[in-house]
Design a protein that fits this description.
Chain lengths: 91, 91, 91, 91
């Protein structure tokens, strides 16, 4: 993937927002990755669970780092990363 | 507005996510209004500030209550409510 | 508003997506305003009607132009613009 | 997957919005699947390309059908489906 400079896609999270400090930690991480995050869509699944879909665009390495950081947060039940090249950066 | 049973629109918030407990309070309120909230879009404006756009559909009274509850949270700098009838519920 | 260089907020639209060419026209306009549009949230209200919430950040003049262009499209039933300063650009 | 009654996740699409009728076809399909679609996030990647992230919640079979229908549309360059159980419907 050396020649791919730009991807677009999303990181999907499911978590229980009642877990102590979870929301603050997730938001802090996202603010550290403003270079690849466009916006996030938040859906209240039920009283406890949230579905969060973070749209990303930019460096594939940064997108993977972001997904890894979010996945490691205690209380996050599910994480997936979906990426595709945007066509830019292909030799 | 007695005969309007359903509206669609959004509540827009700007806040500093570093304020103590702000994220938890905003999320708790939103989970209490799942009957009118469809989803929320979150944009990281800069290191401190967040733009949150909550899409709503349902009772206009509930939508107003939601906006009032969010507006009253300490640390929320800006709140607007935009609603329109969806065509349903008009006599 | 001379000294305000940056605002954040959204343009809200309600329209019938079955109207001829409406979707193409709305999308073309949005691609012309990529400098102020962050992302758009689309909700299918019923078989006919769509709620579209376009998150904007940048020049207030551009945001107003965008809202005006979208409002003028035939078939758009409702348009509102909600903006707030982000704190940048204030003297 | 017989016992899983509810999943949450998203369908991710990348497409060129200039392709004839593409937007109408994609929107028509989405309106046929209102039972599983919560909302869709649309990002204008460049003058041609769009990233669309459709948040889904409900029957896993319906979510797969939706992804299949969208994937088959001429002009769609990339489709992924990401799903997770919400905890409901597990025996």
């Amino acid at each position: 993937m050396e020649k791919i400079k730009e991807v677009a896609g999303c990181v999907v999270l499911i978590y229980d927002h009642h877990k102590r400090d979870l929301l603050n930690v997730l938001t802090d991480i996202q603010h550290d990755f403003q270079n690849v995050i466009i916006s996030a869509q938040h859906i209240h699944l039920d009283h406890h669970n949230c579905l969060e879909i973070i749209a990303v665009k930019g460096s594939p390495i940064e997108a993977v780092k972001l997904a890894d950081r979010l996945k490691a947060v205690k209380g996050v039940r599910h994480t997936t990363l979906s990426m595709s090249t945007t066509g830019k950066g292909l030799a």
